[in-house]
Amino acid sequence: MALTPRFAAILASAAVVAGLGATVLFTQGGDEDIFAQCRRGVVGGSGQLGGPFTLVSETGETVTDKDVFTKPSLLYFGYTYCPDVCPLDNSRNAEAVTLLDERGYDVTPVFVSVDTERDTPELLAEFTEIMHPKMLGLTGSAEQISVASKAYRTYFKVQNPGDPYTLIDHSTQTYLVFPEIGFVDFFNRDTTPEQMAEQVSCFVDAWKNSQ
Hints:
By secondary structure, the protein is of the alpha+beta class. Helix content is 33%, strand content 19%. InterPro entries: SCO1/SenC, Thioredoxin-like_sf.
């Protein structure tokens, strides 16, 4: 597939070392936590994050969270025009998924675009193809994206609405989500692919052992 100059630049920038992200803590009371031995980012559980959403896939199909999270998934909110953070973080997530594949763990990387004006399904398909063959790109209307973003307590703000070259401020955590269970933990930007693969494998093992 021939790449546009913009996506060729994205691919090149993905080789740069990622910076540090903010640390976030979430709490939950309740039942015994089957993932307690695996957690690094979430203190006490994860019940305050996640929820239902309806979005549009990179193939143009309307999908819900149940359609998307059929396997353990790494969920990230960003946009394809992002000049640095998004390609770096998604490249890291893709590398972690490849490491997990090599260890026999089937994990899906998911990219939700918060850029409802520019990120068409076609652009998302090009972006995800660059990043990883298993990556799923999602977009939607402003209302649909807002619902999904609020469910996972992410932040985004368009700097100059109406400007075709505008940047978008956004949060940079990656969320680990399981079918039926939902959100279980998150990873900051300073997590390496090796660390992410190691932690995700722990979660997947605990999930399988509980079934």
